[in-house]
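Hi Q.,

Before the meeting this afternoon, I wanted you to have the flavin-adenine dinucleotide prediction in hand. No need to reply - just skim if you have a minute. The sequence and ligand are here:
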Amino acid sequence: MAEKHHVIVGAGTAGINAIRTLRQLGDKGPITLVSAEPPYSRMVLPYFLEQRISDAHATTATPVQLERWGVECRFGVRPKHLDAGGKTLHLDDGESLKFDNLLIATGSSAVRPPVPGADLPGVHSFWTMADARAVHQHIRPEHHVVLIGAGFIAFTILDGLLQRAGKVTIVEVAPRILPRMVDETGAAIAAAWLKARGLTLLTNAKVTSLAAAGKQLTVNLAGSPAITADLVLMATGIRPNLDWLADSGVEHGDEGIPVDNKLRTGAPGIYAAGDVAAGPNRVTGAYEVHAIETTAMEHGRVAGANMAGGHEVAYPGSVLMNIVSVAGLDMASFGTWDDEHAETIIGEAPERHAYRKYVFQGERMVGAIMIGPGTQTWSENDVGMIKGLVQSGQPLGAWKSWLQQRPFEIKKPYLASRTTRALMPDTILGAPSISPRG
Ligand SMILES: Cc1cc2nc3c(=O)[nH]c(=O)nc-3n(C[C@H](O)[C@H](O)[C@H](O)COP(=O)(O)OP(=O)(O)OC[C@H]3O[C@@H](n4cnc5c(N)ncnc54)[C@H](O)[C@@H]3O)c2cc1C
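Predicted structure with the ligand bound:
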């Protein structure tokens, strides 16, 4: 039987993990990788801003590796039209590719609010390698940087900005910071910590326009005095890259592409993975987009395994998680941390800037928030244990009321519920990973 031709669109986390998996499982079919950018990890771009790594360290597959895997690359090229029924992808350089399997892994793009001046020179997003290089090149120790948006992505670059600029001001339209990552109590602890370390935080602050005078920028706000800045960063949300699927025959909405637990779209032979795919949520069973690295990696591996043929892999679903550290304060949330109707266990230790919220469904932990200084030894270990409890859904039995008395002591309930044992055989492909040659 002739080998199947796999076309992968997008060389980010999902796309490269699919290719890796295809070769790991011994699939010898030709692979063509079509991507606007070469392979790199967006998640490590904050470390480049912090000057802890060079831009080359963000690469996830070198040309040599791709050649060893027998991947035909089309970088700097985008699809113009997908004909799902005819199994043909037309590219914007005039080439047309016939495929047996196609993976849609085009991720997302940063969006800016539609205000005058949002595209002025000196106003940057921080989503691509080109964005990161531009900020790295322009930022100066004497600069006042205004960061618009106080969500998870803004927080991933905050340490870099605090290290590289003289002054940082955050402008957030919501009444509090991290509105989609932690609750009000958690946000208040984080805000106090950051203000004490010199950061200016403006909440309930709506940007109406930006203006430039020479190299200085002015950020105009509704009902508050304008702010002058040397550099403005916008971290105001993302949207999936799906424009090229218009009239393709692949069903999708503004939020993403519905896929089943094998990462198949409704069109035969066409898969979707990562930020573009609305896959299963492991905790709730709902189907939704989780625009995070772990989901992109897992989606890519499951899609790759199912594209390989002879390897039916069902995906149990992703766990929503955000973990970030700013100025020494660790912040994390998992699963359904924001379920207002669920039973919760709360732990607060204001003198230690520490906070815990565990969300329960019966005896199972289905969501959590954790905040505390990274210098406290429990911090790093506890993140992993809380994540494990939410991911495994192990029942805690009597340890739930034990935790109620001692919310900061997660280790005993974790061990007693045999969570490690439950997670050990839990591999994405149902077998231990073996690295493909190269
Ligand atoms: C600064 C930053 C920090 C982050 N930190 C974290 C973190 O700490 N934890 C976490 O879980 N997640 C984090 N993320 C999010 C994470 O990086 C994304 O969820 C992940 O990259 C998604 O992987 P993906 O493969 O779906 O898409 P991407 O990695 O975005 O890859 C998409 C690929 O498709 C290509 N492409 C796009 N459009 C087209 C097109 N029309 N035609 C051809 N090719 C196209 C792109 O060039 C790219 O190669 C961070 C993101 C950023 C920007």
